[in-house]
Amino acid sequence: MKTDDFDYELPEELIAQEPAALRDQCRLVVMDRRTGALEDRIFADIVDYLRPGDLLVANETRVRPARLLGEKRGSGGAAEVFLLREAQGPAPRTNRQAWWEALVRPGKRLKPGNGAVVDFRNDAGEVVMSAEVTDWAKDGQRGERIVQLTTPLASLDDALHQAGKTPLPPYIKDYQGDQEKYQTVYSRHESSAAAPTAGLHFTPELIEQLKNQGVEWETVELEVGLDTFRTVDEEDPTNHVIHTEYYSVSPRTADAVNKARAEGRRVIAVGTTSVRSLESAWDPIAEQVTPRDREATSLFILPGYEFTVVEGLITNFHVPRSTLMMLVSAFSSREFLLNAYHHAIEERYRMLSFGDAMFIA
Questions:
Q1: Please, what is the Cα angle at 258 between 270 and 264, to 5 degrees?
Q2: For residue 147, how far is the Cα from the chain centroid?
Q3: For residue 301, which phi and psi values (nearest 5 degrees)?
Q4: Which of 129, 216, 237, 343 is deepest in the core (most CB within 10 A)?
């Protein structure tokens, strides 16, 4: 197995730069995971492929406004801070002060030890938050820094929502539309740097229609990081060190999954993040999914992996040479998946985060 085995030629013009006008009217490839047979539908037709008793499990995380554009204090030069995850600082966190791991630009001018501070303004031009670069992040593979955030407002959360922007994937170049279109309709807690995009196609009406026909709906939470867009550079993918993400599975969701499995009903993951959450929560001794409360997972699913929980997968089309391509290949086969991708490209499907969808079962 080589990383090149999960590569394909992705025409740049097929990378969707904006979401579908109506979430559930995007296109859908339905693939039989055992035979590779394909059907072309629209996403709303998912109702024809789900049956009473199926359990859908979706990732309810919400994307935080983590992209901060400001100016370097003193020089006034443009600077950017991208918040990745909260870090432990030298003092307790307060409503107005916290420490974060972050990516910064320009990296050469925002180094620890030189007193670099970036100020961020709201739409009225008022400075509502500042970030001081205090240290290097431990094990930072891309030169991540530790920044100390402070605000004169009542809370950092208020300041972040006044100054921050919702981050979009690097291959979406100039989207100026409704930022809420990069959130699922069922998102709750702001804990991610990227959206669980397989869920972007659901509408409240579609979810209600599925429930009315006997399909169950539960959620997990996995904090999606920027590394979800990272490609595998190693020739041998088994040498790749996958990113760590934090996930939670509630007692309610664990009970629903275990009951469905015991009764022979399908558990269908909405997105690869839901797959990783459910498979990570599997207890091989108890032979069931157990509740988890913000535990770390570095589960790297490659072909040959034996799925214990998930029997169906709703997903988007993914970046070539990515861990997500490998996960979806493991769920069916590399040959079937690449055939489906080639079919989608020939049929001019829209690709990646704002693009069309697949249902594999």
A1: 85
A2: 23
A3: -95, 115
A4: 129
Which residue do the tokens 């229609």 mark? 209
Contact status, residue 356 vs residue 28, Cβ threshold 8 Å: yes
In angstroms, the CA 91 to CA 75 distance is 29
> Tokens representing 137?
């992040």
66, 45 contact by CB (below 8 A): no
Q: Where are the alpha helices (DSSP H) in 268-333?
A: 272-280, 323-331
Omega before 112 within 30 of 0, i.e. cis: no
Nearest to 316 by CA among 68, 3, 10, 5: 10
Measured CA distances, 330 to 33, 41, 228, 305 (Å): 10, 24, 17, 6
SS3 115: coil
Please determine, for residue 58, whether its predicted confidence score (pLDDT) is greater than 90: yes
How far is the C-alpha of 310 from the C-alpha of 303, rounded, in Å?
A: 15
What's the length of the chain?
Answer: 361
Q: pLDDT (tens digit, 9 = 90+) per residue, 310-359? A: 999 999 999 999 999 999 999 999 999 999 999 999 999 999 999 999 99
Q: Which pair of structure tokens corresponds to residue 352?
A: 């990646």
171 burial class (0-12, 13-18, 19+ CB within 10 angstroms)? middle
Radius of gyration of the chain (CA): 21
Q: How far apart are the first and last CA of the chain?
A: 24
Cβ atoms within 10 Å of 130's Cβ, excluding its own? 20
- Whole-angstrom CA distances from 105 to 67, 120, 142, 223 are 11, 14, 12, 23
CB 281 within 8 A of CB 292: yes
Give the angle subtended at the CA of 353 by the CAs of 212 and 144, to the nearest 5°.
Answer: 125
Pairing mode, strands 216-222 and 55-59: parallel
Express each pLDDT in 186-230 by its tens digit: 999 999 999 999 999 999 999 999 999 999 999 999 999 888 888
Q: Which of 270, 353, 340, 297 is nearest to 38 (CA)?
A: 340
Instruction: Give the whole-angstrom CA distance, residue 25 versus residue 42.
Output: 6
| Three-state secondary structure call for residue 276 | helix
Task: Say how far apart CA 206 and CA 47 lie, in whole Å.
Answer: 8
